[in-house]
Specification:
Interacts with PSIP1/LEDGF. The protein has 427 residues and is mostly helical. Helix content is 68%, strand content 2%. It contains 17 helices and 2 strands.
Length: 427
């Protein structure tokens, strides 16, 4: 039989155990260094991968910019859409600043020589370009080039109606972002007035006959006019209220639901602004207006689509509160670790205008775009490291698990008090 190993007493050394030598120390040190070098190399590889991805992304953007002057309309359209998506989802200020004149020339060319859908894409890209550049000299130079083109298309009755609709929306936001002279803002507002006032009821009480596409053009012009109304001076707001407040309510009778909603929101916005300027403001047609708004808030006409009625009721309940009580139904927008409260019609109109172009990237721009954060008074962008984001994710997971466990426990507790079958037995 093999000999049993001798064991020392408590605290003694175990047999066949060698003391810790310098060689062992060097091996352990090498293992730590190897682990550290592996982590360092992994971080370097991640950095290189990110840098390569950034280079590939910028290369694609350069290809898009070059393709905006291609002979093929389909290629130009794809390039415009690619640039729109990139600007809506990322902050590209440095890249765009170096190429802004090239991009501006491409937009101008597409607006002048393109047709329909291409012109719409170019108009939207112009807005995103101004949003990226922010309010300053760069965006002012871009807008000075594109404003005459926008107004020419907008006032041209023979131009493509979709292009005119897109220019009506884009001209409003670009003016808000890049116009440096308030008198030019008023001139642009008059340009919008010359459009949507064609939907006003005539002096003899008859309603103009307007086709649906032209009505959409008038709706876009009205919304852009209302957007610029948010930056007007007090004296100009008084003049506008005196001129338009008696006529705007007749747009609530329009057959198009979008026009009715745009008119209702504009009326609420105008009441909010005029009350801020003059707290004792009194409107002669207040009672008929409230009756009309109340009817729209409870509209049950069978000839209207259910979705249109549902949307209309929701909007006009809020509009009625704004006119009667000066109240606004606030809404909270959450993005990252922050939140923003939409607490006025002015802020709502501004937020809706930006969201129309940025779309799903609005939350990202609220986090990272300095210009948009300045518009909504959010302060400089908050820098959050990856560790903080990871901690936030883990806390959400913990809350989810807690809620799941609480739900399970609550279900079990309720089951005890519910009627169950009980074996009574036979007598």
């Amino acid at each position: 039989m093999p000999r049993a190993k001798k064991r020392s007493g408590r605290g003694g050394q175990q047999g066949n155990v060698q003391p810790f030598s310098d060689e062992d120390a060097s091996i352990e040190t090498l293992s730590h260094c190897s682990s550290l070098s592996e982590r360092t190399s992994a971080a370097e590889e991640a950095g290189e991968t990110e840098e390569m991805a950034q280079e590939d992304f910028q290369y694609k953007l350069k290809v898009y910019i070059d393709s905006t002057v291609d002979k093929s309309a389909k290629t130009r359209q794809g390039a415009l859409d690619g640039l729109k998506t990139a600007m809506a989802t990322k902050i590209l200020y440095e890249f765009i600043s170096e190429r802004r004149m090239t991009i501006t020339d491409s937009i101008e060319r597409c607006l002048k020589k393109g047709k329909g859908v291409e012109q719409c894409a170019a108009a939207s890209l112009a807005c995103l370009l101004c949003i990226q550049l922010g309010s300053g000299i760069e965006s002012e130079e871009v807008f000075k080039t594109l404003k005459p083109v926008f107004k020419t298309i907008l006032n041209d009755g023979a131009a493509n109606i979709q292009a005119r609709q897109a220019c009506a929306t884009s001209l409003g936001l670009c003016t808000l972002v890049a116009e440096d002279d308030i008198m030019d803002v008023y001139a642009t507002m008059e340009c919008f007035e010359s459009l949507f006032t064609h939907s006003y009821v005539r002096k003899d009480g008859s309603r103009p006959s307007v086709n649906p596409q032209t009505t959409q053009l008038h709706t876009n012009a009205l919304l852009s006019w209302a957007l610029l109304l948010t930056i007007c001076t007090g004296s100009h707001i008084r003049a506008i209220a005196q001129k338009h407040l008696s006529k705007l309510p007749r747009l609530l009778e329009n057959d198009d639901v979008n026009m009715r909603i745009a008119a209702g929101e504009t009326i609420a916005l105008l009441f909010e602004l005029i009350r801020d300027v003059d707290s004792e403001f009194d409107y002669d047609g207040w009672e008929p207006l409230c009756e009309k708004l109340s009817a729209l808030a409870t509209d049950c006409n069978k000839h209207r689509a259910k979705t249109d009625k549902r949307k209309q009721r929701s909007v006009f309940r809020d509009v009625l509160k704004a006119v009667e009580e000066g109240d606004f139904q606030s809404e909270t927008i959450r993005f990252g670790t922050e939140r923003m409260v939409i607490d006025s019609w002015v802020r709502k109109r501004t937020y809706d205008a930006f969201r129309e172009f940025v779309g799903s990237g609005m939350n990202y721009h609220l986090q990272a775009n300095e210009f948009i954060r300045d518009v909504f008074e959010l302060g400089p962008p908050m820098l959050i490291d990856s560790a903080a984001l990871k901690a936030m994710k883990s806390s959400r997971l913990e809350r989810h698990l807690y809620n799941a466990a609480a739900f399970k426990a609550r279900t079990k507790a309720r089951n005890k008090f519910r009627d169950k079958r009980v074996d009574v037995g036979e007598f």
